[in-house]
Structure formats: C-alpha cells, structure tokens
Amino acid sequence: MAVKSIRSTLDMGRLHLSEAEASLGIARRLRAAVWVFDIDRARIVFANDAACQLWQADTEEDLCARDMALDMTPTVAKRLKQYQIDFSQADSIFTELWTLYPNGEPMGVMVVFRGFRLDDGRMAMQCEALSDAQDQPDNLRSAEALLHTDVMITLFSRDGPPLYLNPAARNAFPTPLNSFEALLVDPADFTQMVARMAEVGEHRLVTKTHTVAGTRWFDLSVKSCSDAVTGQPAILLTAIDVSELKEARDTARHLADRDQLTNLHNRSYLQNYLEGLERSGDTSGCTVIFFDVDRFKLINDRYGHDAGDTVLKQIAIRARAVLSPEDMLARLGGDEFVIVIEGDSSKAALELQVEKLRSAISKPIPHDKSRIDATISVGIAGYTDDSDCFSDVMRQADIALYASKQGGRNCTTFFNTQMGKAAIARDQIEVALGHAVLADEFILHYQPRLDIQSGEIVGAEGLVRWLHPERGMVMPDVFIPICEETGLIDELGRIVLEIGCTQAIEWHQAGLDLDVSLNVSPRQFSDPGFVTTLQDFAARPGFPHGRIELEITETVLIGEHNEIAEKLRAITAIGYSIAIDDFGTGYSNLSYISRFPLTCLKIDRSFIDQLPASGPIVQLILTLGQQIGARVVSEGVETQEQLDWLTDNNCKEAQGYFITRPLAVRDFERFVQAFAPSSQRGRDEYRA
Questions:
Q1: Distance CA 676, CA 341 (A)
Q2: What's 455's domain CATH number?
C-alpha cells in the first residue's frame, strides 16, 4: 500500500503526513514494514508499526527523528541518488537485497523501492520490506559487494540496452546507454570483441570508453551469458578504470624515449629506431646527419648553464621546424643532435637541407637580456654496403663532424673513406697517449723570452712535446686536442707542471735568473684540487717563489668573477704569477681585467702578424698593461720589421721564431749563454 502524500512542514524534527487518518490507518495496519524515506534530507518521514519494529524504534516519532546520514556510506548515498533520478525519469521500481543497520546492527532485507512525491514536489522513496534475508549470508555479502565495489559490472542484452548496472557502473557510464557498442570509442574494438566472443565466449582488452567524465581508459572483460530473468543471450561486462595507470605507463614510456630538456627522441630511442630500419631491410639511401653546437662550453661559461639550456631547447625547436615530419630528430646528450632522413637524397638536396638548418639556428637566441649567437658543425654519412649497422653509420657521421670542427667549425662535411683512415690513426694516437701518460714520454722544450730594451733573455715558456717510441717527436697540435676531448688533459697538465717546476728549481739553484711560463688549460684551472697541487709544488726545497708564471686563457676568466678572482689571489699568495695568454682574442672585458692579480699580458700572434695595420690594437694592449701594472709580451715575432715596430712602441718583451724556435733544455741553456746583447754571432746562430 502506498502512502499518497506527505506534509512538507517540519514539526519537532519530523515531517507529518497530510492524509486523512483513515488512509494512515490502512497503512499502519499492514503487516509488511512500510516506510517513506526523504532522500534529500536522509530521514524517514513515515513508518508503520512493522517498520518501527524492523528499525528497532519504540515509536514512529523516535524513528523519524533519526538522522540516517550519520552512518551512511558515500556509496549508499550515491545509490539512493541514482534511485531518485530513475524514479523521476521512468517511474522505476527496484527489488533488491539490502543490509539495514537499525541501531548499528546489520539486518538483511529484500526491499521493494518505489518513487514517492512529497508535497513540496521533491522525489522521496517508498520502501516495502518483503522478507528477512538473515538466513542468506552469501547473498547479503554479494549484494553488499556489488553495492560498494569500484569495479563496474553491467549486464547487457545482446543487441540492446543494459539489463543491470551496479552502482559503480551507474556512476561512471552515461545515460541513456542504448547498447554495449555505444559505450566504446572505437567501433573496431566492438567488432573485435564480438568476434572473439563468438570464437571462445569471452574477451579482454584495454580501450577508450565513454563515461560521464569524458573519454577514459578501461580494462574491459566481457563474457557471453544468458539473462537470468528472460533466458535471452546477454553480455556480462566487467570494467576497471585504468586511466591513471595507462597515463603513468605512457608517461614512463615517453620519458624513456625522450630527452627531458628538449623533448626530442633520445639516444636509446634512436638506436632502437635505426635497428628497426635495419631489421626491415629499409636502410637503402638512409642518411644520418650529426651536428653539435660550436664552442658550447663557452656559451655555458659566459652566460651560465640556464642560457646553455635555452640554446639547446631553441635549437631543437628550430631544427624540428625546418625538417619534414618524417625525419627523425634526436638529442644524444650534451650539445649533440642527430637527424635521420629515410629514402634516397642527393648530395645537393642534403646540402640545401643543412643550409636551412644552419640558417635557422644561426639567428640570435634571446635569453634574459642577452642575445646569444650559435653556430653548428655538421657531419653527414649514409648507409652503404660497407655500413650495414647503425653503429657504423653513426661512427662515420661522427668522424665527418670531427672533420668539420677541425676545419674551422660552422661547416658541413660528408664522410669519405680517407676520413675513416684518419679516424683509425687518431684512435691509435688516443690509445698510445694513454700509455704515454703512464710511461712519462712527455718533455718540455723552452722558447726564450727577450727583453727588447736590454737584449737579454729574461724568461722561457715551457712547451710540451711527446717523445713517441716509434714516431719520434710529436708536436702538441697533434695530441693536445685529443687530450682535451678524452680528459687526458688533466693528467698531461699535471705532468707539465711537474717537469716545469722541477726545471725552474734546477735553473734557480744554478743561478740562472729566468722566469718560467707554464700553460694551464681551462679544465685544469677549474679542477677543485688545482690549488692544492700548486701548493705541493711550492713546498719543494728551492722553489723559486714569484718566478713561475702560469699562463691561462681569457676563457678561464668567464664565470663568477668573485670566485675566479679569489682563486687567482690564492694562487699568487702561494708564490706563482699569472699571465693571460693569447690576449685580445677572447673575453677581453676590460671592466673585470683590473680585478684580477695579473702580472703579464701576452699579445696574440695574430695581431703581430698584421703589423703595422694592427698597430692601434697592439698599442691599446700596451697601454692597458701599463695601467694595470702588467708586463706585455708579444708572441709570434717572426721578422725584423715586427721587432722594430715593437721596439719603437715601447713593448717590453717578445718571443717568437725570429728570436728562436723552442729548444730542448741543454740547447736552451747554450742559447742563453750565447745570446748576449754584444753577440750578434750567437743571435744569428740560434735564430730559426
């Protein structure tokens, strides 16, 4: 029996019925428990005696005063809201097994739920208990599980709408849901699923599904079955939302394949990509373009690593913009990039492609208030019959890139077999250098430094040579670049300091009044242990404090000026002096030069070569040296005319082949003895 209407007036915490007492009497005399539940306010607004007994309430007033929301789970609240919608839209009736909790004690009851319109128009719910289900514990537990589980369980008719949706499915899937097929984003997934069920009766896949929250990824499991009510063919669907897991896996896969700074493909992906092409036999005409940023370390040193990152990201964006979508672009690490172009490309077409790339990258790159100029060196190699694996082609492109850098940078080189032979020879030198460091195969030759006014030799620059056991004397331009690339420059620098300091001590003890200049690489200078190494040498007996000069390049002065100045002051405090080598070709920021404890500026040979045209620049450096109290030495003096110009313009010191080439220790000592202001014969004898 349904109660027809309810007053909407709240009296002492409960809502009273507005029906005639005759109607109330009929409802109250029913043996079945009947109550009306206000879903919005979570309160019972009418209950007969049987309902009061079921809910263990002494009176109807006591039952209506209870706030059912206090111990209601969110799942139950959502389920009741679903009922409310169905009552309003379709006048639905539900018969379900529910667990009630009168006074906190569980009680299983089969309940019929119908919609009930209150006086104020809101939809409530009439509940009628059919039977006590306490003797069916498994049914109770399964019903409770279906109610609370987050797994979406739906029974579909074979070609029509759902026959049953558990609360999780009702919350997730859009309504009205006309068919199982309408649930899937990709119709091909439904076709595949139907085919598999026809074959084996079930299927499982992860696919995109329409939900009330939009498109989501679900792990779907479907089985052929029959409707327990009608016996008609049906589909049982179990669905688990795996969107977060799918996104996490996709992100992990993306991160594994991508460079995090530029979002380009990384080395691992590139390797797999090329190996895939090789397995497919589709490498004919495939070209690898290898490029890196010229003097990238200088960009980092001058502008900071944030600026370096900006440059790399901009290069990635610009390179991607001039390439076709089919071209592979990857960052190997550092400032190294690789482009893979599939299919046949003529040399002219590749040159045009690289020219577009170079033009795009060479445009100034803004960073903060700076505009950074960047150029690239490029090496190109293609798959041939002799290079059937990616490592061969990458190696060849790398060799061509190295040739571009050796050729002056900012250029493009195509690999050829002659380069391959040169690379093999270079590899052999690299291996031999490792042995040379251990076997002490390095010596220093010394180039004299002339006091132009007095005509005396006042100093010597130590220049390293490699005494190769088979090739004999190897000049530094052959092995220094390899040492810098391989990191051997650190150990070589220590060896140069060891030999030079030992020789300076020997000359000092022998009464030879000379300054000894030794070159220090930027990497060696930045070593945290460099000052300690210098302290160890300075602690040796007979160390000539103030007579050993360390030559650094202007690039060493780029960076945090306070830290650099502090380090230079610590070095001079130990007993060394500091010279700037190749001055005028690098940083040359005059506002900072005066902050550093410099004792000498060495004018780069390129300015001396151009005298007298470069005279104003040389005069400027001479004046700067006077202003900061540093000697000025002109390097690379090769003619009498150059020496005369320097003499006329009051340059203090010079060195170069016009005076003599670098000499072995004993030859140098004889030269110093023979080279006196009054001995023209001795001067001519030793001049190069």
A1: 66
A2: 3.20.20.450
| 168 neighbors 152 (Cβ within 8 angstroms) | yes
The Cα–Cα gap between 269 and 178 comes to 44
Asked if residue 613 lies in contact with residue 647, where contact means CB atoms within 8 angstroms, the answer is no
Using DSSP bridges, classify how beta strands 456-468 and 515-519 pair: parallel, antiparallel or unpaired: parallel
Residues 17 and 3 sit within 8 Å (Cβ to Cβ)? yes
Q: pLDDT digit string (tens) for 619-638? A: 999 998 888 889 999 999 99
The C-alpha atoms of residue 51 and residue 334 are separated, in whole angstroms, by 77
If asked whether residues 503 and 618 sit together in one domain, one would say: yes
CATH code for position 200? 3.30.450.20
**What whole-number distance in Å separates Cα of residue 227 and Cα of residue 236?**
9
Residue 433 within any structural domain of the chain = no
The rounded distance, in Å, linking the Cα atoms of 54 and 225 is: 37
- The answer to whether 601 and 579 are in contact (CB under 8 A) is yes
Judge if 236 and 265 occupy the same domain: no
Question: 473 near 441, Cβ under 8 Å?
Answer: no
In this structure, what DSSP letter does residue 639 have? S
What average pLDDT does this structure show over 330-358? 88
Residue for token pair 């009628």: 128
Q: At what angle do helices 417-439 and 390-406 cross, to 10 degrees?
A: 80
For residue 628, give its domain range.
Answer: 445-462+488-686
Single-letter code of the amino acid located at 363: K
Beta bridge partner(s), residue 653? 451, 633
Q: Output the domain CATH number for residue 340.
A: 3.30.70.270
Q: Based on the domain organization, do 305 and 188 belong to the same domain?
A: no
Q: Inform me whether the pLDDT recorded for 363 exceeds 80.
A: yes
Question: Which residue shows structure tokens 């505009």?
Answer: 371
For the stretch 410-445, pLDDT in tens is 889 998 877 777 777 777 888 888 888 888 899 999
Distance CA 189, CA 185 (A): 8
Q: Which residues pair with 112 in a beta bridge?
A: 95, 128
* Domain edge (last residue) among 226, 247, 268: 247
